[in-house]
Amino acid sequence: MATLTQSNKCSLCTTRGRHPSTPWGTYSARGKGARGHWQRRQRTAPKTKNHHLFKAVLDQVHSPLITILAVGAGLSLLFGSVGDVVIIGGTILASVVISVWQDQKAFQVSVALRQVSSYHARVMRDNQVTMTPAAEVVPGDVLLLAPGDKIAADARVISSQGLEVDEAALTGESLPVSKVPAGKHETNHIVLEGTDVTTGTGQALVVAVGQQTRMGATRSALAENGTEASPLGVRLSRMLRALIPLSIAGGVSVVGAGLFWGQTLTSLLALGITVALASVPEGLPLLAKVGEAGVARRLSDKRAVVRRLSAIEALGRVDVACADKTGTMTRGRLQLSLVATIDHEVKDLHALSPQFRQILLAAALASPAPDAPGAESHPTDFAIIQGALAAGLDQQLHVPRDAEFPFDPARGFHATRVQEILYVKGAPEVLLPRSCWVIHNGEKRSLDDATRHAFTQRTLHFAERGLRVLAVAQSNGTLLDDPQDLTLLGIVGISDPLRDTVHAAIQRCHEAGVRVIMITGDHPSTAGAIAQEAGLLNGEGEVLTASQIVELQNGELDECLQRRGHTVAMTGDGVNDAPALRLADVGVAMGKGSTEVARQTADVVITDDDFSTLVEAFVEGRSFWRNIRRALALLLGGNLGELGLIVGASFFGASAPLTTRQILAVNAITDILPALAVALQQPAHRNLADLSREGASALGTPLRNEILRRAMATTLPSLASYLFILATRGVAEARAVAFASVVITQLAQTLDAGRAEAGLTNAVFGAVIGSFGILAAAFFIPVLREFLSLVLPTPFSWMLIGGSALLAVLIGRWRPMPTIALSHLFGTKVAQSSV
Question: Where residue 104 falls among pLDDT bands split at 50, 70, 90?
Fold first, then answer.
């Protein structure tokens, strides 16, 4: 905005005095020359920011979780555990690929939205009107403005004829702003990049482009500086760092117990190192990434594009949703809501009496003809015309207009003469003083003071209901620009109606403990009417004005809520919304009409602009936390269960229940597929209230207890089966039973965990069947059986293995589990955690 501010120091009189030339050598009559345009473009052309694949890969590789796993792979290689190196390396590669793929996909959606929203400007150059891409407009160009145009740069108005601009994208102002060459305020004679011409025509001299415009300055201020670490990734890194000492302790215990029972150090060292490395869950980062990518894919099918995967975990923690009224709660387009007289109103346009049809016809005739150029440019006129067409007045609307005086904000009315009758519609406070008569109960009467007061109260009543109210009148006069002696016919009420899905969506939020805050620049009575209809004012809801929350204006609303411990989702579509989108835990851009700045700043883009779609995102976010908790419990509980099996056997002085190769094979079968299938489960309940807002607490006590149950469910049946077969049939078959038991117990728990959420999904069932197939291949394919040093179990042993699976499910469902002090694994004060 620096350039714009300096330009404004030059008064309009001085600028006019320089015409036909301007400070940039522009002649307003013929525009800038092609050579001058080329020279200035070399200096002012905005630099586009490309998406670099290499940088996206580096951002993922620098993740703390990936770093820890890479160190683990290095240690595995040092101790000769090539199998672990391959598994860890594959996990890292898959995690990076998934993250980069999602980032690239979101970038492609962003590019597509940008291309859809790209536009051209009409520019005067060399005395000719040319259509120029908005990106090629330079300071000194003269823009020719007409209804429907999107303004390509910040510019000073040098001429206008009823010019009005919709600045909602930048300022949030819901009504068009009148633009004139000279005004009391800067906003009256400056048009801004990204705003839309709604009505009228004009010319404007470009004074700023690129980063020097108001939109460009906001875009630059919000430019990202690197990628923040995911809170979930930070928590998983902390968990992994805490598990490493536990794994080392397990390996040391195996070595120590073996030495105590007289075993050789050489074999014990190899086993201890393998146990320590194998108990580290290599699939941990992949689990979170695949779960997030699965949610992102499902949300894209529901018209919600996730630009940052880390937003998914925040969606599951949201307890305050701040939503813009226009276009999010409402449909974002005006429509005729009612036709009224002083004492009656009709909302059903198909059931209008002759008197009400005449009111609507007069309002429609006091508007542009339906087939007139630019008839759709003014939302109010278009809403009235569409309402008249819906009421069956299409033939009457197409009568020729003898003369027309378009709406002028300074005058506040629109007048049209049709067949020697003057039809006028406009603001009630403008038409009432010009009226002397009124149609009441079908009769023309003098407009006395009592009727004037009743009419005024009627319009105020409709305004309090959230309607934009227009009075409709007619006369036999001929002065279009100054109609007098009018006869009031009635009132038309126009509104931006609530979306059909919003009331139910807000009810879902309230039932689930999500507080909804509607943000609007409307009058409190209008805001209150919409909020009441949406269900926001039921119970303890209230309308607050800016003066009532002045304390919050020192910081953004979302910052204030965050300081009070809330997780905030903020919606927006304009440049003025971008700072709030950046500060919120989840910034949500309403995609259809949103600016590029809002889309680039947001974490999630809702492409259908529907608040109910955001509620679906909350459902997916909460389900993600539940699935991650269950998947982590399966993965970590299984690994700790394997560790418990080996350590437990060593304490009994028994031979190692699993060899090094068998341990790696168990990890390959159980570590990835089953847990991933659970992480990818769809939510069983679309009702938000049925999914508790777990958030960080999901990785606290509930996860700790579930891991302990899963670990015991894996260790106890497997260890008991191993010791029994070892005592009765020898070490070879005992190891085969231990190998099968430790796999089967984990697969049985996976089936049970999957069934608990949404019934047995195809993904969970397929993962378990696939893992079971690998287990069967290890026993029944001779080459694999020999490689893993396995023998075929006897029928009795298979029955024992099946019993282990059943016992594991029962232990996993046992809730009175004593809490063991492992809080250092998951962090204390979970409720205050950043996750």
Answer: low
H or E stretch covering 44: helix 34-44
How far, in Å, CA of 581 to CA of 605, rounded? 11
CB atoms within 10 A of CB 634: 31
Per the prediction, the chain carries an average pLDDT of 78
The residues facing 339 across adjacent strands are 346, 492
- Do the beta carbons of residue 748 and residue 718 sit within 8 Å? no
CA 674/CA 760 separation, integer angstroms: 13
Q: How many C-beta neighbours within 10 Å does residue 444 have? A: 11
- d(CA 113, CA 420) in angstroms, rounded, equals 49
Q: Which helix (H) or strand (E) holds 145?
A: strand 142-145
Tokens 């709660």 correspond to 329
Residue 87 contacts residue 282 (beta carbons within 8 Å): yes
For residues 417-428, one letter each, b for 16 or more C-beta atoms within 10 angstroms of the residue's C-beta and e for the rest, the string is bbeeebbbbbbb
Contacts of 103 (CB under 8 A, 6+ apart): 56, 309
Max Cα–Cα distance, the chain, nearest Å: 117
Active site residues: 324
604 by Cβ neighbours in 10 Å (0-12 / 13-18 / 19+) ranks as buried
Q: Which pTM value belongs to this model?
A: 0.68
What interhelical angle do 731-758 and 762-780 show, nearest 10? 170
Separation CA 700–CA 447 (nearest Å): 73
Question: Mind listing the pLDDT tens digit for each residue in 531-547?
Answer: 888 888 876 666 666 54
Assign 613 to helix, strand or coil: helix
CA atoms within 13 A on the CB side of 722: 29
Determine the Cα–Cα distance for residues 133 and 122; give it in Å rounded to an integer: 9
Q: Give the Cα separation of 64 and 232 in Å (integer).
A: 11
Tokens, residue 108: 């492609």
Partnered with residue 196 across adjacent β-strands are: 150, 166
Is the pLDDT at 424 greater than 70, yes or no? yes
Going by their DSSP bridges, the two strands 335-340 and 345-346 should be labelled as antiparallel
pLDDT tens, residue by residue, 720-735: 999 999 999 999 999 9
pLDDT grade, residue 492 (50/70/90)? very high
Structural domains of the chain sorted by starting position, each given as residue range(s) with its CATH number in brackets: 2-49+121-221 (2.70.150.10), 236-303+621-832 (1.20.1110.10), 314-332+499-609 (3.40.50.1000), 335-495 (3.40.1110.10)
Two tokens at 105?
Answer: 């996909």
Residue-level pLDDT at 432: 94
Please check whether residue 376 is in contact with residue 532, taking contact to mean a CB–CB distance below 8 angstroms: no
